[in-house]
Please model this.
Amino acid sequence: MDKRAVIFDTDPGQDDAVAILTALASPELDVLGIVTVAGNIPLSLTTRNALRLVELAGRTDVPVYRGSDRPLRRSLVTAEHVHGETGLDGPDLPEPQTLPAKGHGVDFLIETVRSRPAGSVTLLALGPLTNVALALAKAPDIAERLAGLVLMGGGYFEGGNITPTAEFNIYVDPDAAAIVFGSGVKLTVLPLDVTHKMRSTKERIEAFRSLGNNSGKAVAAMLSFSERFDVEKYDWEGAPLHDPCVTAFMLQPEIFQGREINVEIETESVLCRGMTVADYWGVTDRPKNAFWVRSGDSDRFYALLTERIGRLP
Ligand code: RIB
Ligand code: CA
Model:
């Protein structure tokens, strides 16, 4: 089987963790590296958590690089209210023994994409797009060289989650998102429209715990912790599970449905900062710059995640 080379850009975060663990367990993917960004919690903690995850998965062969510690222009907004003070509250994971790789994560992104055949590396973005925007600004040629960028972010039919109109990843760094969505990179977006359909019910969390391995128990503890905020907010039978939609799209895109549309990012409005203005119904003649995923099969999604997490230590 031809492995597909991927790089994660991430702010782990319990849902990022499930996305990364699933990828590390999947033989179809060659995870070249993990670049951390400030988002759910500050950079020092997203980096610490990424190191804890590669150790949990027994994959310390995957380098973790520190990226940007703040958005391009705005002050950092974090989400400890969802993810806890460590950003990975829930399981009791040990202090990482491995260190981050030397060098800046943005340079790793650029050098890796340039050094491999054009069209062979896919970037998977799970947090604010600061690193991705910096890489595209510093090396515009990588927009063409990348096989694509698959990101979790935005919302249209489901509105926002950090404000009524903005999803967290886009809201934290709307200027970076505007650069990314205007870069011409082949873009696939997994917005709240689809992630809100992927709800971690008690049965689904129990399926992870029943795997019996450390990773399954850790995932169950992560989701049990992070779901409490959303279950109260939405009054659903389970919290939406966001970032693993990115990994699942790479593994089984047939789980999902969407269409090519135009998406613009609101960067100036105070009220609507970070809104993804998605022209889903084609009412403008703006260029189609993103494959926007609107729905997916939640049973197949969780079956995939559970089976893959079951392959880990
Ligand atoms: O809005 C959900 C996104 O914000 C996810 O990536 C979650 O990890 C947080 O970063
Ligand atoms: Ca995230």
Residues 11, 13, 15-16, 39-40, 126-127, 152, 161, 167-169, 242-243 surround alpha-D-ribofuranose (ligand 1) (CB under 6 Å). The chain has a mean pLDDT of 97. The chain has one domain: 4-309. The chain has 13 helices and eleven strands.
